[in-house]
Specification:
The complex is a heterodimer of chains A (326) and B (347). With 326 residues, chain A is of the alpha/beta class. Chain A has helices at residues 44-51, 74-79, 96-105, 113-119, 135-147, 165-180, 192-198, 216-221, 239-244, 266-278, 293-301; strands at 6-15, 18-28, 33-37, 59-64, 67-68, 81-84, 153-157, 184-189, 201-206, 209-214, 226-232, 250-254, 257-263, 284-290. The longest helix of chain A is centred in the middle third of the chain and has 16 residues, at 165-180. Chain B is 64% helix and 6% strand. Chain B has a four-stranded mixed beta sheet with strand order 2-1-3-4, sandwiched between helices. The chains are: A alpha/beta (326), B mainly alpha (347).
Chain lengths: 326, 347
């Protein structure tokens, strides 16, 4: 059996009194896309940087392809790994194709700058200075650099944070293309939607620990076969009527916005709509959706993961400890 | 068949360093324009002028031949005044001496405190006596000479080269590393299989390349503007400059090894460079400082660099005969590199 692409056991990192990473175990098989999810400050970046051999671990085991860091084979490991760090500013006055050539030169094999330019759809910008690029284009260049050595394993630390949906989709398609060639990916993100779209398995981190692990589907199903109905209304809702009659499992309210949790079936939905009609409530912006990883996080921690009102309740940002910087 | 694409990391890193350098206009200004402007400013302010002859106001004695001789003499600058004007000119320091012909003798009036007065008196007296028939008994031949390499600009240009080498080496290596660390670029390189030695060596190559250009520009400029020439060997000058660049690069590496933000890097750069701007004799000889300080000043790298550049530039000594300066620069280089190698952090 071949060694897992990434293996870590009882991985610990402390910064003073803060335990940034608290005894984490991970095993990521070759060819897998694994997502590390969690809010800012959960310890995702610290974990990834220990796996990358960039940050010293305090204790525990880290092996990439069955090889531990610091055993005289670091260079061999690095030749097989591509990395996109969070906010790296590459040299301002180098052109995009020059940056690719530079990074390509570090690896024994890899893709030509032309291939990378085409792959990242940077044809129109390849002669521009890095400093002249927009944030989204800079992220593409960073991902191109990570792919320059044709790696077997790709680390992506929040690659799409702050990107517009179109740019995000492009990055997703590049990651999918990389996987179709047999590559392994470890991606951190706080977009649950991104994890669902890309990852075979995810681990949810909170305060330095992994609080859930599995495929996105199994984690969601772990909540039970539920769905959510959301709407706004200014007329008073008889919440009791919903729960006592067994129409819903829970009612959450924030201001004028309601969120009902009910069984995942059309008949359950129909009964809820009937009850709304009976109470003569006009729901505004009514939507129904199945549980997401956001709901999993909410159920596990009692806190919302994202601060964006995408498809859940509008909640204040979680009071997470600031991401510890090494 | 196309060649397999396999760029060499050292070549690419060096090219990247060179490109960043020439594409940054601010850096180009500080490296090339600034020292040239300094050279122009200082060279013009302290340019050599032939000594002005003493100026003399002559009053009276219109038909006296000796007085006429005074007015015609090339050894001084004599002009007729009336008494009142002459005394006013003297009190305002416009003339060094007033010679008044009064009852068959010359009366010399002068400011007893003025520096130029004794010379003016001696020259005027000579002219008057010779015109009156005095003959000199001892033949004296005057042979005015113009020695190349003895002017202030000859002292200044090697000093400016030394200071330029210090500045570009320190900013180009140490400060550049701090910027790269702040931008998290060093971390990015650290997760690639790039060899650390390639990275540091690329700095060495790009610095040396630009050193050659910098030196060529400054030497050519001194020659065109002020006629200063390398009397000694040009390879010797380059060797000294290279050794100096190594010393300052090493010192700046200590700063670049750890400092994380550009503000404190700025502070450290100036903390190291400013004392040497003052003490090391870039603009003016450190001999003017009290004797007690000379020995410590001679151990500063910029002093060693400027001293060595001057003697090699003027041809007083060859590079291989330099002792003290080479030891000083070598010691700073080795010590700096060793300390930096022990303390260097990629993140």
């Amino acid at each position: 059996m071949t060694a897992p692409a990434i293996f870590c056991q009882s991985l610990v990192k402390r910064y003073g009194d803060l335990v940034a990473v608290n005894a984490i175990d991970l095993e990521i098989r070759a060819g897998e896309c694994f997502g590390l999810l969690g809010p800012n400050g959960a310890g995702k970046t610290t974990t990834v940087e220990m796996l990358e051999g960039l940050t010293e671990k305090d204790s525990g085991v880290v092996e990439l392809f069955g090889i531990a860091w610091g055993t005289g084979q670091d260079r061999q490991i690095r030749q097989r790994v591509g990395v996109q760090l969070q906010d790296t500013q590459l040299a301002d006055k180098l052109r995009v194709d020059e940056v690719f050539t530079l990074f390509r030169s570090f690896y024994p094999r890899g893709r030509t700058p032309d291939e990378l330019v085409r792959l990242m759809e940077l044809e129109a910008d390849q002669k521009k200075y890095f400093s002249a690029l927009s944030g989204g284009l800079k992220q593409r260049v960073a991902l191109g650099c990570a792919l320059a050595g044709d790696p077997e394993l790709l680390f992506l630390d929040e690659p799409t944070t702050g990107l517009d949906p179109r740019a995000r989709k492009l990055l997703w398609s590049v990651v999918e293309g990389f996987r179709s060639r047999g590559g392994t990916v470890l991606i951190t993100t706080h977009y649950m939607e991104e994890a669902t779209a890309l990852c075979d398995r995810v681990a949810i981190m909170d305060r330095g620990k992994i609080i859930a692990q599995g495929s996105p589907r199994s984690l969601v199903d772990g909540l039970g076969l539920v769905q959510f109905v959301e709407f706004e209304t200014t007329s008073p809702l008889d919440e009791q009527a919903f729960t006592t009659r067994g129409l819903v499992q829970a009612v959450e309210r924030r201001g004028v916005r309601y969120r009902l949790r009910l069984d995942r079936s059309l008949s359950a939905m129909a009964r809820v709509l009937d009850e709304l009609a009976r109470q003569a409530v006009t729901p505004v912006g009514l939507s129904a959706h199945q549980a997401t990883l956001d709901d999993v996080f909410l159920a596990l921690t009692g806190r919302a993961l994202t601060t964006e009102p995408e498809n859940g309740l509008v909640v204040p940002p979680p009071k997470a400890p600031a991401e510890a910087a090494p | 068949m196309t060649e397999p694409f396999s760029p060499h990391p050292l070549a690419e890193l060096t090219k990247a360093r060179l490109r960043e350098f020439v594409r940054e206009k601010g850096i180009l200004f500080w490296v090339f324009a600034f020292p040239l402007l300094m050279a122009i400013g200082l060279g013009v302010a302290f340019r050599e002028r032939p000594a002005e002859p003493p100026s003399v106001a002559v009053v009276g004695g219109e038909d006296v031949p000796a007085v006429r001789a005074l007015l015609e003499s090339k050894e001084l600058h004599a002009k007729r005044f009336d008494k009142k004007q002459a005394m006013r000119a003297l009190s305002r320091n416009k003339v060094d001496l007033v010679v008044e012909w009064r009852s068959n003798r010359a009366v010399m009036r002068y400011d007893a405190m003025a520096e130029g007065a004794p010379l003016a008196r001696a020259v005027a007296n000579d002219v008057l006596q010779r015109a009156a028939g005095r003959s000199d008994r001892l033949p004296v031949a005057a042979r005015p000479e113009k020695r190349p390499g003895a002017r202030y600009v000859d002292f200044l240009i090697p000093g400016l080269i030394g200071m330029n080498v210090m500045g570009t080496s320190m900013w180009g290596v140490g400060y550049n590393l701090v910027v790269a660390r702040k931008r998290r670029l060093l971390r990015r390189y650290a997760v690639t299989p790039m060899r650390r030695s390639h990275f540091l060596f690329s700095y060495f190559i790009s610095r040396s390349t630009f050193l050659v250009v910098e030196l060529a520009v400054l030497i050519a400029f001194g020659w065109i503007m002020f006629g200063t020439k390398v009397q000694g060997s040009i390879p010797g000058v380059f060797s000294v400059a290279l050794l100096g660049a190594a010393a300052f690069a090493a010192i700046s590496l200590i700063i670049g090894a750890r400092v994380e933000n550009t503000e404190s890097a700025n502070g450290w750069m100036n903390f190291v460079q400013l004392p040497m701007w003052v003490l090391s004799g870039g603009f003016f000889s450190y001999e003017r400082f009290p004797e007690l300080l000379h020995e410590p000043i001679r151990w500063l790298p910029l002093t060693a660099l400027c001293d060595a550049l001057r003697v090699v530039y003027s041809g007083e000594a060859a590079f291989r005969t330099l002792g003290h300066e080479v030891i000083v620069l070598g010691a700073w280089s080795v010590a700096g590199f060793l300390i930096a190698a022990r303390t260097f952090r990629w993140q």
